[in-house]
Structures are given as structure tokens and as C-alpha cells.
Specification:
By secondary structure, this protein is mainly β. It is built from one helix and six strands, in the order βββαβββ.
Length: about 130
């Protein structure tokens, strides 16, 4: 099950074929706290992201979409949703590699900010009673 990370640009990206698992660990900076800030499901195409958006919004969940967004060295399309424990989840597809580390920054932050690559600020909560189906 254990594999070598596929990248060394400030994070380690482990992709395991069997059982299917992807784990990305982002390098921290001295004095900054680290946390598991979100979970993700990688799919193969933008169409699969759109299909997930339709399924999730059909369940009454709030589903902010980000298209052509750059995060953690890749260009992605994604949709965000909160899970039943209020944890943020993303369903995303990687469209291409991003050119360099300056592309690795949170939305709205300066290019020299550390990568947080997490849920957008102000991700709205799901309506009461809505869940994951």
C-alpha cells in the first residue's frame, strides 16, 4: 500500500492504486499551526465534477463551484460542500500542472502566501436538515 510521493515542491502527494487513496501533505512553516483543513475526492473529468455538483445540490446542499482555479501546483475545476460534521469537502479534477510555486496560494492572497488550498473563505453552511444522502 505504501508508495513514494510523486512531488517534492513543498508538499508530498501520495497516490495509491489499491486500495484507492490519495494523500497530500503540505509543508508547514516554523511557528505556523498545521491542521487537516479539508478532504477531497479526485475525479477524472470536469464533467464528473459537474455531475457531483448536480447530485449534491439536488440533496439541498450548498455547492460553490471553482473553475480553472490554481491550487497546489495544478489547474483544477472543483465543487465544495460541507459534510455532516461541517468539514469541507471538495470534488475536483486536475486539468494540468501549474508552472511554479507562485501558483500555489489561497484565493485572494498574494502569490508569496503559503498554500492553504482549502475551502473558499466564507463557504456557506448547508441548510438545517440537509445531509449527504
Amino acid at each position: 500500500m505504501w508508495s513514494r510521493p510523486s512531488d517534492g515542491r513543498g508538499y508530498a502527494n501520495f497516490a495509491v492504486a489499491e486500495p484507492p487513496l490519495k494523500l497530500a501533505l503540505i509543508e508547514g512553516r516554523p511557528g505556523e499551526p498545521t491542521a487537516m483543513d479539508h478532504r477531497g475526492v479526485e475525479v477524472g473529468t470536469t464533467e464528473e465534477v459537474h455531475a457531483a455538483t448536480g447530485r449534491l445540490s439536488g440533496l439541498g446542499l450548498i455547492t460553490p463551484v471553482e473553475g480553472d482555479t490554481t491550487c497546489c501546483y495544478s489547474l483544477q475545476d472543483k465543487v465544495w460542500v460541507h459534510g455532516p460534521g461541517r468539514e469541507p469537502w471538495e470534488v475536483y479534477t486536475v486539468k494540468s500542472d501549474a508552472p511554479d510555486a507562485t501558483s500555489m496560494h489561497p484565493v485572494g492572497a498574494s502569490p508569496d502566501a503559503s498554500c492553504k488550498c482549502g475551502a473558499p473563505a466564507g463557504l456557506p453552511e448547508n441548510p438545517a436538515g440537509a445531509c449527504c444522502g
